Amino acid sequence: MDKKLKVGILGATGMVGQRFISLLENHPWFEVVTLAASPRSAGKTYEEAVGGRWKMTAPMPEAVKNIVVMNVNEVDKVASGVDFVFSAVDMSKDEIKKIEEEYAKTETPVVSNNSAHRWTPDVPMVVPEINPEHFEVIEFQKKRLGTKRGFIAVKPNCSIQSYAPVLTAWKEFEPYEVVATTYQAISGAGKTFKDWPEMVENIIPYIGGEEEKSEMEPLRLWGKIEDGVIKPAKSPVITCQCIRVPVLNGHTAAVFVKFKKKPAKEQLIRKLAEFKGLPQELELPSAPKQFIKYMEEDNRPQVQLDVDYENGMGVTVGRIREDKVYDFKFVGLSHNTVRGAAGGAVLCAETLTAKGYIKAK
Q1: Residue range 39-93, pLDDT digits in tens
Q2: DSSP single-letter state for residue 234
Q3: Consecutive H or E run containing 260
Q4: Cα separation values, 323 from 9, 256, 258, 329, Å
Q5: Exposed / middle / buried, residue 11 (Cβ in 10 Å: 0-12, 13-18, 19+)
Q6: Pairing with 328, which of 15, 181, 277, 350 sits 20 to 30 Å away (CA)?
Q7: Residue 158 annotated as catalytic
Q8: Peptide bond preceding 285: is omega within 30 degrees of 0, i.e. cis?
Q9: Same domain, yes or no, for 28 and 149?
Q10: Of the residues 134, 240, 242, 251, which is catalytic?
Q11: Would you call 251 a catalytic residue per the annotation?
Q12: Has residue 359 been placed in a domain?
C-alpha cells in the first residue's frame, strides 16, 4: 500500500478504544489520525482525556498522546478527516445504530466492535477466516443507505471465538448439537481488577445477554446471503452458559459436540491444524499464521500460558476426547479483547481493504 489509510476511532477513551490504539501503533496499512469520544472528553488531548484510566499493559503510544479528542456526535466533522472509522462507542443500542448509520451516510465505512448492528439483516457480521463472503451483502446495504462507499460491518461477540472457529473446522462431520460453557474474563466487561475488586477470588454465573449471543451468533456466521440479507443457519443447535471468572484477559470454553458423521480424534486434530481462511491466504498484517493450534498436554490451554498465542489473534484448543453422552468434548481459549474485540475488527478492516471495500476518500 503506497499511502496509509486515515483511521478514526469512535469511543477512543474506553477499554476497546484503547486496545484499537495499541494494535494500530505502527500498522503497515492504517494510521490513526482522529480520536472521538463523549462530549466530556472532547477538546482535551487524548492523554488528558484518558488520565489514569489507561488499561493496556503497553504504554500509551506517543503518536496519540497529543491528538485533541473530538466530539463523537459531531459526525460530519469527525468523518471529514478520515477514510474509515472503527466504532467502540459506549451508548445504548438504539443510539449506536443511529450514530453508526450517520457515519456510513457521510460515505465513511464503519467497522464496529459493538453488538447493535449484529442482527441488522444487511450488515455483515464476520470472522474473516469463517465467512468473508458475507461482505458481499454490503452492496445491498449501500442501496438501502443511499451510499456509494459508506457502510457498516461488524465482528461477532467475544464469547464465541473460542469455539465457533473449531466447529467451522469440523463442519464436514456435521456437528448438530453443542453444549458450551464459557468462562469469561473481566476485561470483557471493560474492567480491570482495580475497577472491580469484588471479582477477586469470585465467580459470577451470569453475564447479561451473553448466553443468547453465544447460542445464536455462530448460526449467523454460518448463514447464507439470500435476497440481499443474511439468513442464519438452522444447525447446529447450541445451548450455552456464560460465567464471569477472575481472569483479566482470555475467554475459555468447555464444549460438548454431537456429530452426524462420526470422526476419529485424529481427524479432528488434523482438521484444526489444516484450517485456514482468506486472511492466511492473503497474508494480511494481523492474520495469525496458524489460526487454531491443538495442544496435546492434558493441562492446556491455560490463560496465563496461551492467551497471547499468535499475538492474541489465534485460538488454542486442548483436551479433545470422546464423551459418554456426546461424541466429543474439548476446551478452547481465545483472547477476548484482541481476537474477540479490537483485533477481530482490525482483521475485518484489513480484509475489507484487500477486497476493495475500503479505499482512500
Answers
A1: 999 999 999 999 999 999 999 999 999 999 999 999 999 999 999 999 999 999 9
A2: -
A3: none
A4: 45, 8, 10, 6
A5: buried
A6: 277
A7: yes
A8: no
A9: yes
A10: 251
A11: yes
A12: no
